[in-house]
Amino acid sequence: MRYLSKILDGITFTELQGSADVEITSITADSRQVKPGTLFVAVKGTQIDGHIYIEQAIKDGAVAIVCEDLPGHTAGEVAFLMVGNSAAALGILASNFYDKPSAKLKLVGVTGTNGKTTVATLLYQLFTDLGYKCGLISTVENKINGKIIPSTHTTPDPVALNGLLNDMVNAGCDYAFMEVSSHAVAQHRIEGLQFSGGIFTNLTHDHLDYHKTFENYLKAKKAFFDGLPKNAFALTNIDDRNGNVMLQNTKAYKKSYALKSMADFKVKVLEDQFTGLLLNIDGEEVWFKMVGMFNAYNLLAVYGAAMLLDQDKAKVLTSLSKLSGAEGRFDYVISPNRIIGIVDYAHTPDAVQNVLSTIKDIRKGTEKVITIIGCGGDRDKTKRPVMAKVACDWSDKVILTSDNPRSEDPAQIIKDMEAGVDPSNQRKTISIVDRREAIKTAVHLAQPGDIILLAGKGHEKYQDVKGVKSHFDDKEELIEQFKTVS
């Protein structure tokens, strides 16, 4: 049995009305999930203020309310707890409700603009291959010992997150690896969690629709490291100009990785081909199935984390050499007439440039590179012209198309992208609103040996148009179109 008094550990409150000895059967910040015995936490969100639902929550059976502002009148049989920040309190309450599951396993968080999913997924695959029971919380999917739990957010809300971690503990997991998004930090979703380590991949232009400025975005990432305990590790990419910033105020022990700078963990790229990477990693030459300089960073981050978690070097390198990373990350297929298709989740200017520069490094030089690219609706508009410019600068042909337009007009999104196309690149650019038609056009423009990059959606299996998600899979569509050419 869970009583309110037992789950208030770590909560600073200014006022308590009613009894703290009330039994709590569930906890939520979503008024639609309230049922008899629920603790309802009224959070002031970016769109909705949960305080307006307090009365309804009580009608639906809430026995305790956590809020920043007490309502005009309080029901005598309901406990009211007044706090300074409900969102921060929710994370701690959720952790306490599930008996602090993050403290019962080794939890490692991965943050950065690009590479989070690949690093977290590789860590999950690696430690599973090493014989441990593991959990994964990622953009693509959540996993508990191989069992897949669908993912709805990069980092779930605190109640769902602690519920997942609790399920991992109950399943006997030794480790959990999770992506930590900047939204999750800013919205206090990771409050109350106890991390054994944190990894920083890189920081580039993204999410400015939410954070407003790059400095705010940087601060959100840094706050994750600021909160790490002294017995955790903080592993950062110091080739990134913001890498050392992450370590400035952390109490964790500081470690670094790099390809170009002096660092604790180093790697040298010996070969980079469509079939994989030959790396000299910590003095050992190893062939990896993954492709591209960005994956050299990802593999090095995973290797460094494994060493910091006291794993055997030889076993780690052997296991890593067999792994292929996350779905929809430089995922390639070849048509019967040898057109190469690459599906990648790259949805930031830097990520698109990384993929295209990798293709440039690997290609023989005679092939054309055709890039299909769009930008999501209801998201950061400032990156749209930049995305188009990068695609044009690094490709022989560019097709601007729809990604997930959501509530926006897809044609207008493409117009926003077109603003970034230099006059010298306009002749190589085509705008096709329908993504399926864009893929079909690219395949029919391509000659044997040419390379088609489908950027932006990666693992996603849907198109989000006006609130309706219909099935759409870039790789599936590409394979279908490949059947029409010979």
TrEMBL record:
Residues 23-98 form the Mur ligase N-terminal catalytic domain. InterPro entries: Mur-like_cat_sf (IPR036565), Mur_ligase_C (IPR004101), Mur_ligase_C_dom_sf (IPR036615), Mur_ligase_cen (IPR013221), Mur_ligase_N (IPR000713), MurE/MurF_N (IPR035911), UDP-N-AcMur-Glu-dNH2Pim_ligase (IPR005761). It is found in: Cytoplasm. Gene3D superfamilies: Mur ligase, C-terminal domain (3.90.190.20), Mur-like, catalytic domain (3.40.1190.10), MurE/MurF, N-terminal domain (3.40.1390.10). A motif (Meso-diaminopimelate recognition motif) lies at residues 403-406. UDP-N-acetyl-alpha-D-muramoyl-L-alanyl-D-glutamate binds at residues 31, 154-155, 181, 187, 189. It catalyses: UDP-N-acetyl-alpha-D-muramoyl-L-alanyl-D-glutamate + meso-2,6-diaminopimelate + ATP = UDP-N-acetyl-alpha-D-muramoyl-L-alanyl-gamma-D-glutamyl-meso-2,6-diaminopimelate + ADP + phosphate + H(+). Pathway: Cell wall biogenesis; peptidoglycan biosynthesis. Keywords: ATP-binding, Cell cycle, Cell division, Cell shape, Cell wall biogenesis/degradation, Cytoplasm, Ligase, Magnesium, Nucleotide-binding, Peptidoglycan synthesis. Its main location: cytoplasm. Signal peptide: none annotated. Carboxylation is probably crucial for Mg(2+) binding and, consequently, for the gamma-phosphate positioning of ATP. Residues 328-458 form the Mur ligase C-terminal domain. ATP binds at residues 112-118. Its EC number is 6.3.2.13. The modification N6-carboxylysine is found at residue 221. GO terms for molecular function: UDP-N-acetylmuramoylalanyl-D-glutamate-2,6-diaminopimelate ligase activity. It comes from the Bacteria. Meso-2,6-diaminopimelate binds at residues 379, 403-406, 456, 460. Residues 110-306 form the Mur ligase central domain. Belongs to the MurCDEF family. MurE subfamily. This is UDP-N-acetylmuramoyl-L-alanyl-D-glutamate--2,6-diaminopimelate ligase. It comes from Mucilaginibacter jinjuensis.
